[in-house]
């Protein structure tokens, strides 16, 4: 272990602002990126499922109307 | 010979690649965490104080990996873009698009950590010297690539336009890398070189390499995650995506 105390670790030899400013921003962005990806993916999957259901519903509706037309004819 | 060609194309098809990528993602996350913990422990808890820069030098454990990855991801992105342009393989264009945002992230982090390192050591956040300026151009190349692709509706045409931009931009990478040799700059020379022994303590070097490996594994995990989302979006009208969405696919249980 290089440090004598936790306070010394935090102080980073009077460079705390620069060192922790780098660590903080890098950590936040590298945690945010995968989180945003997961959220974006969930939204996309939900949207695609909705569209697929709507399409299937539509094609079933079309088939049933064409069937009634045929039976009428 | 023909068998091999067919196999190659099989793995280049989104339908085959999608579940494979899904299985690989957790492993790359595990490796990223492992290397990250090891690298940061060595870098921030064990490595000795730098004789010239005191404790402020520890930014190196973030700055160098971010800078390396920003350049390396660009090369990989340009490679996939070029393959896509030459052979018209769908997956290549998707890979290039999946890499760009993460490359931009690392280019930004390289500039950010560089500024925070420059202020205490050089007395300035920024100088318009060769190394810093060419890294800024790299960030603009990534942003340009993303913006260009976003502006074109047809994915195939977006891939082609993006590929040309990416390939032209490759010329910037050796400029960044060798800028500290070619021009007189405020930026210090290469920390690690293939031709001579590294000019730093072994612990510092190990910490830096492990952090770089962590960023590398992170990038692969992220790129695979993003390429899967791009695949779903672009291939949404194909049978395999429809099967996946309606729950007949293999790995919908884990990754919907």
UniProtKB/TrEMBL annotation, chain A:
One GO BP: cytochrome c biosynthetic process
Swiss-Prot/TrEMBL keywords: Cell inner membrane, Cell membrane, Cytochrome c-type biogenesis, Membrane, Transmembrane, Transmembrane helix, Transport
GO CC aspect terms: plasma membrane
InterPro entries, alphabetized: Haem_export_protD_CcmD, Heme_exporter_D
Domain of life assignment: Bacteria
Compartments it resides in: Cell inner membrane
Keyword Cell inner membrane recorded: yes
Transmembrane segments: 17-38
Record membrane topology: Single-pass membrane protein
Its biological purpose: Required for the export of heme to the periplasm for the biogenesis of c-type cytochromes.
NCBIfam families: cytochro_ccmD (TIGR03141)
Similarity annotation: Belongs to the CcmD/CycX/HelD family.
Annotated protein name in UniProt: Heme exporter protein D
Species per Swiss-Prot/TrEMBL record: Candidatus Accumulibacter meliphilus
High-level lineage: Bacteria, Pseudomonadati, Pseudomonadota, Betaproteobacteria, Candidatus Accumulibacter
Gene encoding the protein: ccmD
Automatic annotation (TrEMBL), chain B:
Pfam family, one: Cytochrom_C_asm
Membrane topology value: Multi-pass membrane protein
Residue stretches spanning the membrane: 27-47, 67-87, 94-112, 132-152, 164-183, 203-227
InterPro entries in UniProt: Cyt_c_assembly (IPR002541), Cyt_c_biogenesis_CcmC (IPR003557), Cyt_c_biogenesis_CcsA/CcmC (IPR045062)
Subcellular location, record wording: Cell inner membrane; Membrane
Gene Ontology annotations for the cellular component aspect, listed alphabetically: plasma membrane
First and last residue of the signal peptide: none
Domain Cytochrome c assembly protein: 27-187
Function: Required for the export of heme to the periplasm for the biogenesis of c-type cytochromes.
Family note: Belongs to the CcmC/CycZ/HelC family.
Identification of the protein by name: Heme exporter protein C
Annotated source species: Candidatus Accumulibacter meliphilus
Phylogenetic lineage: Bacteria, Pseudomonadati, Pseudomonadota, Betaproteobacteria, Candidatus Accumulibacter
């Amino acid at each position: 272990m290089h440090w004598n105390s936790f306070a010394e670790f935090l102080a980073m030899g009077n460079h705390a602002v620069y060192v922790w400013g780098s660590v903080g921003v890098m950590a936040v962005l590298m945690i945010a990126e995968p989180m945003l990806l997961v959220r974006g993916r969930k939204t996309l999957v939900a949207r695609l499922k909705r569209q697929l259901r709507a399409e299937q519903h539509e094609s079933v509706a079309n088939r049933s109307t064409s069937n009634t037309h045929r039976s009428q004819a | 010979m023909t068998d091999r060609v067919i196999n190659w194309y099989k793995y280049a098809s989104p339908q085959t690649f999608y579940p494979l990528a899904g299985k690989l993602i957790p492993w790359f996350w595990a490796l990223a965490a492992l290397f990250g913990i090891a690298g940061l422990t060595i870098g921030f808890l064990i490595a000795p104080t730098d004789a010239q820069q005191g404790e402020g030098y520890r930014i190196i454990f973030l700055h160098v990996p971010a800078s390396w990855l920003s350049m390396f991801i660009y090369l990989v992105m340009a490679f996939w873009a070029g393959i896509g342009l030459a052979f018209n393989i769908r997956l290549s264009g998707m890979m290039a698009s999946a890499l760009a945002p993460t490359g931009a992230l690392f280019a930004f982090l390289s500039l950010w950590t560089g500024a925070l390192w420059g202020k205490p050591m050089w007395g300035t956040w920024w100088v318009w010297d060769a190394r810093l300026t060419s890294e800024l151009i790299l960030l603009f190349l990534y942003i340009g690539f993303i913006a260009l692709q976003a502006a074109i509706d047809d994915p195939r045409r977006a891939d082609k336009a993006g590929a040309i931009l990416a390939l032209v931009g490759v010329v910037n990478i050796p400029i960044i890398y060798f800028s500290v040799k070619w021009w007189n700059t405020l930026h210090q020379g290469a920390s690690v070189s293939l031709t001579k022994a590294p000019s730093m303590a072994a612990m510092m070097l190990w910490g830096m390499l492990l952090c770089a490996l962590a960023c590398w594994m992170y990038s692969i995990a992220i790129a695979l995650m993003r390429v899967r989302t791009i695949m779903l979006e672009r291939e949404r009208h194909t049978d395999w995506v429809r099967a996946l969405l309606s729950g007949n696919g293999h790995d919908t249980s884990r990754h919907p």
